[in-house]
Amino acid sequence: MTTPTPSVAELGHVGLRCHDVSRQLAFYTEVLGLTVTDHDERLGIWFLSARPDTEHHELLLAEGRDAPVGIKLIQQVSFRCARFEDVLGFHRRFREHDVRLDMIVSHGNAVGVYFYDPEGNRCEVYWRTGLVARQPFVEHIDIETDPEELLDTIRASVERHGATGFTEESYRAWTREQAMPAGGAAAKEVRQ
Q: Domain VOC spans what residues (predicted)?
């Protein structure tokens, strides 16, 4: 009897250790709108989901972070949105709540708004465009442009660069800086 090769169906959840679980919990529930599905205060853990009827938890917040803020532990945690309007709405909400933004980009196959949670973890909300684009594809966009005009611009860019991928020099420089050890040069804010 042969055993089939095991395969992963999908990423189930990500767990983050926190300095201040209460502050993180408020951010992920009030700003991102995730639902607390369970918690155990004795253990200092909280389970959150965007789809509590489908997935018990997609994010776990836990006490006990001992790495200083600013240490590069997580490249990003991304949350997929069902509609482009959701990404636009989150962008407005982030501005209303003074959430620190990182970059707003087209990936060709997606539109993403990158931001930082209260403890400096880099996150993204994104919407899949349905277009095919080789990755990496990182092109800064002005999300306050008329939505139809912006989508037309993204489609045109994918027509030009979708087969080869595309990255702006500022993103390439930022990526190189992020790969430097902590004692290296400080990362610069090179994105909008």
A: 10-128
Decide if pLDDT at 109 tops 50: yes
- Cα–Cα distances in Å, from 11 out to 8, 134, 144? 8, 22, 32
Which residue matches tokens 């918690």?
Answer: 39
Question: Residue 68: how many CB atoms within 10 A of its CB?
Answer: 9
CATH number at residue 46: 3.10.180.10
Phi, psi torsion values for 131, nearest 5 degrees: -90, 160
Rounded distance between C-alpha atoms, residue 72 and residue 118, angstroms: 15
Q: Please tell me the total count of domains within the chain.
A: 2
Beta bridge partners of 123: 77, 115
Confidence of residue 87 (pLDDT cuts 50, 70, 90): very high
- Reported as a pLDDT band with limits 50, 70 and 90, residue 158 is very high
* Cα-only R_g, the chain: 18
Q: How far apart are CA 167 and CA 118, in angstroms?
A: 28
Q: Are residues 103 and 177 in the same domain?
A: yes
